[in-house]
Amino acid sequence: MDKKVLRRIKLRDRIARWVITIGGMSIIASVILILLLIGNVTLPLFQEPAAVPLAEIDLGKSPKQPEPLAIDIDEYLENAVVFSAASAFEFYATGTGALIDTIPVAPPKTPTAIPIRVTVDAPLTFSVQWNDGSLSVEQIRFLPQFDADGKRTFGRQVLRKGSFDPPPEGIPLQSLTRMESDRQVRVDLLADNRLKVTQVIVESDIFGNEEQTEHVSFLANVNSAISALTLDHHGLALYAGTADGSLLHWDLAEAGSPKLLSHVSALNSNHRITAMAMILGDISLVVGDDQGRLSTWFPVRVEKGASEKRLTRIHQLAAHDSAITAITPSRRDKSLASLDAHGSIHLDHMTSERHLITLENPQPLTRISLAPRGNGLIGLDAEGRLQLWSISNPHPEISLKTLFGKVWYESYDAPALVWQSSSGSDDFEPKLSLTPLIFGTLKGTFYAMIFAIPIALYGAIYISQFGSSRMRQWIKPGVEVMAAIPSVVIGFLAALWFAPKLEKAVPALFLAIVFIPLALVLGILLWQWLRRYQPLKTVERGYEFIAIAPVLLLAIAASITLGPLVEQWFFAGDFKLWLFNDAGTRYDPRNCIVIAFALGFAVIPIIFTIAEDSLSNVPSSLKAASLALGASRWQTVWRVILPSALPGIFAGIMIGLGRAIGETMIVLMATGNTPIIDPSIFNGMRPLSSNIAVEIPEAPFGGTLYRVLFLSSVILFVLTFALNTVAEVVRQRLRKKYGRF
Amino acid sequence: MKKYWREGEPMVWATGAALTLTLMIAATLIIVVMVNGLGVFWPKNLTLVTLKSGSRVLGEVVQREATASGEGERLQFKIGNRDLYGLDFRWVDEADFEKTELPEAAMVLERQEYGNFYGMLQSVSAPGFEASSSQALEQLMEQVAIKKQGLEEFTEKINDLNRRTSKLEHQKQILFHDDPQKNQDAIAALDRQVEALRGEFEHLVNRQTEAAVELHHYTATFSDVNGTQKTMQATEIVRYYQPNTMNVFEKGLLYLARVVELFIDDPRESNTEGGLFPAIFGTVMLIFLMSLFSFPLGVIAAVYLREYAKDGTAVRLVRIAVNNLAGIPSIVYGIFGLGFFVYGIGSGIDQIFFPERLPTPTFGTGGILWASLTLALLTVPVVIVATEEALGAIPTGIREGSLALGSTKFQALVRILLPMASPGIMTGLILAMARAAGEVAPLMITGVVKLAPALPLDGTFPFLHLDRKFMHLGFHIYDIAFQSPNVEAAKPMVYVTTLLLVLIVLLMSSVAIHLRNKMKKRYTYGTF
Lengths: 741, 528
What we know:
The complex is a heterodimer. Chain A is an alpha+beta fold. Chain A contains 15 helices and 30 strands. Among the domains of chain A are: about 165-345, YVTN repeat-like/Quinoprotein amine dehydrogenase (Methylamine Dehydrogenase, Chain H, 7 Propeller), CATH 2.130.10.10; about 435-735, MetI-like fold. Chain B contains 15 helices and 13 strands. Chain B has helices spanning about 1-5, 10-40, 80-85, 135-180, 185-215, 250-265, 275-310, 315-325, 330-355, 370-395, 395-405, 410-440, 440-445, 475-480, 485-525; strands at about 45-50, 55-65, 75-80, 90-95, 95-100, 105-110, 115-125, 130, 220-225, 230-235, 235-240, 265-270, 275.
């Protein structure tokens, strides 16, 4: 042959070898990469939060000057705001550390008054307490502007939202205020430990005329010195902490008549409460004491069914070494920053009770503030320097406990396992427990397998061992084709055809469970008498399943006819009502019975096919030997064939289980998709798989929900992978044992 | 007798019963789908019932059942006329019947909106034309059909203009993204072109409106059974017939016409009426694209595993992994497709090739390409397993013989082994396609939609729009059965769609399984 041709052929072979090898390996590798990639998406959920020092700004103050009264930062982390003792807002650029602007703030009443205390109540909103007793609320507005080069600059503006005149009782020890559009609230702690509440209600009629009414009330029944005070963000609830560790909670919703809702001893030992704040959403109260302990509280029903609610300790967060001096809740989620007397900062998340970060500064910090987006923290140290950290803390609400354990969510009466991923409001506490979903998956799978395994196995035994080979030729492929019926079709029929029919005939179903075996026994007895006639006996050569069909149909027909009668006799004519009243279970139209049938039907062909394969691949010599020794055909199957095929059957069941766990469309359509934990067969569930399908379209890319859904798909992957691997190993071993199949 | 029990004969019967039960459930499923799906298009007679109260009901009898009290029966009528009654169905107790008849004049109108109308023709009105016979209605509809064609030409022209405009806008976007300063002149030129097109557009729209307004004068007035008059524009009427006067043959023709409509028409009334063409097209195209990816990948991987890889633990592990992947839930593949294809590769493509359109995603959102890739991943294991089995079934003698004659491994593969294994490979492919046709869950998160504005394949450059969203039969079932506002009225369409999908899938898998069994026989009996 021509050498050239030979060389070309050889070259081609070599190229093909490389292409196929590389191609094959990369395909397999890339397919296996799926898990890694999905897992990779979920990893940030468990990432430790990190804080990076971003800037240090020297305020250029000499030690003699009094230190600033309040600090804050804008949402871009570009402008640091300082309320100086000289009663002016100073703006510093965090990039350069330079002072950009100073805007003085005039006292509301006495022109010579100086500010003595400033609190940051909302992003860039400062409540200023003046030394003449007056109060004002100042809000800073940043107006981002873009210049010709596309660079962002800020216009700055200070707005006064409102002010209160000095009280006649003298200068209060501490004052709090809230300025809302329809109400202004002022709370003063007077020198005699009384609390004075001033509420100005603004009512406007349809013509836009405003009318203001002022209500003043005093709260005096506090036994021990009040050491901490806080108002919720709308000024509707007042909380006070005392020096002997008591917590008081007043409802201010009705102007002029505050109601004491609870008075509880917060800490078992009498420790002074040093700081309090409301978590975003205005439900939970954070309390810090002089021992450095940090806990959150909200009102819980005293007992089940009672209307009285009492403040109860819900979450205990990581403790500090020394007394807590300030607490700053995040304005974005349920996390909070706390500062202690030694100047170290803790960042904690309430729901997950996760201690996120501890920040220490060489110079202890005296004031802190969280950025509006929760991505930064600014602190003022003892030397008069501003410290700015950027915080990467994408998923603080996720911990193993919130994913799998019981968590006491806001407004719940007890810790619970709940999945509720979203709500209308921004201050919603996401409830991302996977346990109800895993339970749903297992529940649906369990009922489906109870239905599918016996039927599939018995069917496989019959067709492989007893059925005539002519029938087998048709039935085996028939069942395989059954496996191809799309699950969306099964789900649709289950939900819109079967479920309404079942709803009317639950007693008939129970009757059928009794009647079918009964009819079978009767049928066999009848057969005893029939089989004496020779021509009929040929049925026993593998056509029994046809002969039994009318018996089964009769049994089903009988149970359907008798069902309403039984319902009349035992369940007073309405089974669902009886179930609700007497058994205490609600009947959902789309329940586990429907799932058992639908999911079972989807799984039967899989178990059937694999079990049939392994049964018919048992060497026929075994069967022949057993029959020759005088065993009956059932004895042979039960004692000889079944044990040898057991691994294959096991594999079939495992693979069927894997399919049932991962099936999405059937459960999506035929269950109510309610994430409840209730083993009752008469209600639905929400499994992992349909949860993904339901929630992923609404999950923002990269958000917590998105990653949690990926995590649930990892769980599904791992579950099915484990089941399939076990099955596959067993099958391979079997294959070795019996040659091929 | 005792011996009979001891031998376990009853257990044999029990196993037989289990098999019967399986077959019965399967048969029930098929029968329910068939009965409900096949009957949908058959024109049913219109029954007119006069009730004892004096009111009258006209409609198709849908079903009958025993009343709640157990005495007598009640009938469910499809009374249509959603715009008049608000409801499509009505239950009437048989005990209340005064008189039942099948009036010949009763007419069924299939309409663009509000579902069917059942009633009697009152009058027909067109410019210079006024009549009240059904022949007149026929003439009217013929005239309208001609006029409508003219209208459609306008629509096509307008669509064409729209496409040209959006193309120009896109060019403008590119220039703007590139450098608005430098491309100022070009942008201005484009603006002028767009302006010119817009003028033309307005002109066309005006003429179209004129034509449409002219069509408004072609109306027909019908009355419902209780005498309420309803005047409809002829363009609203899709089809009309008088079922009570039709014989079986005529009904059969109408049935066929409706089946044809199912295959070639677009859906109406939020997918609950009309045709399935976009869904069928989307499904077919999805499967085709999926095969393009999964077939070569699966075959190469299988050839590597069976012919090139050295048998050992590694290959065994890989084989377990591949078999395993066939059992991974489809929703997991969907999630992977979303995370990797859509948000990973898709966003990357957008960044590089379509930065001017951002933040509107082009490939960075679900589309037919990503859906088919996801399905390809899902079905690759099926192809691998089938191909491997087919290659493994070829006796080694053939391989050795070929090599002994001096062929290279590649030659043996291409000339001998692959052709011999081709039925097996085809089986795998068909099984994969059947699986892909029935899968819905992964599509739901990678690009299937309820109503796609355009097909992924059309006459405008570049003809194949892989970034477009698409419709799918399986999703269609889910959508109209669970998301439509009027589930009861949507049911017929769901059953039809179900029937179609089941037929497609069952046909494909029966062919595949038949092929496989035939092949098994060839190798198991033919070679030894």
